[in-house]
Amino acid sequence: MAQGLRVGVLGATGAVGTEILGILAQRSLPIADLRLLASPRSAGQTLTFAGTPLPVQAVSAETLQGLDLILASAGASVSRQWLPIAVQAGAIAIDNSSAYRMEANVPLVVPEVNPQDLKDHQGIIANPNCTTILMTVALWPLHQVRPIRRIIAATYQSASGAGAKAMQELKDQALDILKGNPPRTAAFPYPLAFNLFPHNSPLNDQGYCQEEMKMINETRKIFHTPDLRLSATCVRVPVLRAHSEALNVEFFEPFPLAEARNLLQQAAGVAFVEDWERNYFPMPLEATGKDPVFVGRLRQDLSEPNALELWLCGDQIRKGAALNAVQIAESLIAQGLI
Amino acid sequence: MAQGLRVGVLGATGAVGTEILGILAQRSLPIADLRLLASPRSAGQTLTFAGTPLPVQAVSAETLQGLDLILASAGASVSRQWLPIAVQAGAIAIDNSSAYRMEANVPLVVPEVNPQDLKDHQGIIANPNCTTILMTVALWPLHQVRPIRRIIAATYQSASGAGAKAMQELKDQALDILKGNPPRTAAFPYPLAFNLFPHNSPLNDQGYCQEEMKMINETRKIFHTPDLRLSATCVRVPVLRAHSEALNVEFFEPFPLAEARNLLQQAAGVAFVEDWERNYFPMPLEATGKDPVFVGRLRQDLSEPNALELWLCGDQIRKGAALNAVQIAESLIAQGLI
């Protein structure tokens, strides 16, 4: 650590991987050596880190040797295959996939919320789902002061959650439709341009999709509230890379609006954006490429004295994935855990 | 009435007005004479009704004489100015604007829900707000059987709610952005293409926008439940002309899912669309140009035994405005009120 960390990035060529490289170049994580890893298919490419070209190597037992830290964003099956090997070889793994999130011995961490959970890690640390990260950053400052009883969430999720191909598909579809041609679909089952649809992740027997169950189960784990009541409707919208969420949040007692506003204005990781005169609140286009979770339109719910309504936007690739992973690494250092 | 109705369409050149003409041509309202009215600015244009060119006349005390029925969709101030004159001259007015909706002596009607309220009309009948129409068509079949305690709504509203100019603006902005140019805004305060934002109607002191208050107040009036608890977050999304809504609906007792599904499958004005295998549910692109309110993704709320979650889409210009107005006229005839 004195000489800096030997860091691997697995899935370096993907949407989240390339964002991780950009964030590592901007921030102050001490890096002695950076190794870019990807599937054999992507190996041989060259990426740029802080102005320096670096080769992308195929992930293997050999290329996973000699790392202190590995940041993985190559999907659940890749993580399951390679992260135990990386940990065995001495690395701490921060995994952006869903592979390990709900395992009891794996901390699931949003650094603004539960950094102390990192102390219990056994090699693998999970980065939560993007919608969950954005919601927990916004609600933790309130939940700490007056516990939440129930959350009803409706999401407005961008194409980027399905990767770089989905973002390009949205743009191609928009152009198709504007030219009067039928939109082509590949990354998504249905056209997304000038359309929207319930989140296309697998549905369970209760009619909840995987994305909704992630919000429910991951929030409970991060908040250490296994009984938290939460329902969600997750929807894909034709936005490129920032998610939005409409949250109805019921507490066990009334939450004075001014107090809630004050807490959110001071909260770590939150940019509180409200201009009631201009009807100006967080928007995904303005959250794109930014670090904070943008929160606003905080209102007393007129239908329930104990509930507040709020609205948020956050960059899905950045705080929803890459930035949170890098912040976990920073928190490990700050806590002397690496 | 034996020879058919003398019908005026006020605001004939607008997005809703032209849709009304199309619907009148498709359906069986007995029309003896059709008069197209608009502002002096639009007068002189020619529109086509059922293959026949018709002139657009400037609205005036003279051109409002001799009508049995007037369908108005020219905005609240135009309705306030001209509808009392039309009624004075003998017409029944069906007004698509918000001008008269909350007045005690004006029926606010969704024909699938409260057609009996038409009996009390005093000349003016109000067509509800689009989001309210879609929601009440979907929820009335349930509310009739087990009363609703509380609704939490999040909307995904298309550009068409702001008129034909807003629809064109969305397309122009999308092309601007795809070409790498900054999007131009005029109809909306912020870019809508590849973006979204809380509904741009005026905000009240409690932080609710006009659109949200319409959903609350109009639903209470239509359902005759002045104490119904309802909160809403209304959001503009980059979709051209169909609205979507995520509704969390709490009843006073548990509502068995199979019973709710059965009621919705048989409900007037509802097309129940669910294919859980394909993750296929209502989508705004598919609701466009169609008459029904498309309802699906009906689920037991995992956070509340007495609540259901459901999802709907409906054509904002059609059932959300023009079709509902024509159906009110049809209901007047069926009830012998005109």
Model description:
- Two copies of one chain form a homodimer.
- By secondary structure, chain A is of the alpha/beta class.
- Chain A has two domains: 5-128 and 321-334, Rossmann fold (3-Layer(aba) Sandwich); 132-316, 2-Layer Sandwich (Dihydrodipicolinate Reductase, domain 2), CATH 3.30.360.10.
- Chain A has helices spanning 15-26, 76-88, 130-143, 164-178, 210-223, 257-266, 284-287, 318-334; strands at 5-10, 31-38, 46-49, 52-58, 69-72, 92-95, 124-126, 148-156, 197-198, 229-233, 235-236, 242-251, 270-272, 293-300, 307-315.
- In chain A, strand 3 and strand 4 (52-58) form a beta hairpin.
- The first copy, chain A, is globular and about 60 Å long.
- The first copy, chain A, starts with a strand and ends with a helix.
- The relative contact order of chain A is 0.15.
- At the A-B interface, strand 8, helix 4, strand 9, strand 10 and strand 12 of A face strand 8, helix 4, strand 9, strand 10 and strand 12 of B.
- Chains A, B: Residues 6-121 form the Semialdehyde dehydrogenase NAD-binding domain.
- Chains A, B: Keywords: Amino-acid biosynthesis, Diaminopimelate biosynthesis, Lysine biosynthesis, Methionine biosynthesis, NADP, Oxidoreductase, Threonine biosynthesis.
- Chains A, B: Homodimer.
- Chains A, B: This is Aspartate-semialdehyde dehydrogenase.
